[in-house]
Amino acid sequence: MNRDRLAVVLCLLCLVPLAGAGSAPAENAGAAFARFKSLTGNWEAKGPMGISRVHYEIVAGGSVVLERFTSDELPKGSDMITAYHLDGDRLVLTHYCMAGNQPRMRARDFDPATGIVQFDFAGAGNLAPPAAGHMHSAKFHFVDAAHFTTEWQFVENGKPKFTETAKYTRLH
Question: Do the bridges between strand 159-170 and strand 41-47 make them parallel or antiparallel, or are there none, so unpaired?
Fold first, then answer.
């Protein structure tokens, strides 16, 4: 019995270093969040499916960056919201999707030199069944003060179904 308990404790101790794996380090998470804060205002992307617009604002005493996404191609009332915030020493997002679910993602990496931050799936609300389609990852590239790009991957039945990319320009 004691040997079994020891085995369980050792297994759990082996997992402890993994608990924070896949997250942007604390100093980079803060830098990435600052980049999201710098997006405050209106942005537009023109692509093969029309014009997409995003509006960013800082809310909740500066602790959340709120994004509202609209597109000429979406039905009226289908705007999507994404909230970005720090959770301890990690940057996270929750995407309120027109698919009716709310994927949560965690920043795995942010390189201030390249301006690229990568988010990976960390769970979701209203995802039933688990194989239902949902946004599964997001990549942002902060090019300069007037431009950034996004790449959102949609997964269904455990496989990538499509990727949405956009190149945004700040509107004045």
Answer: antiparallel
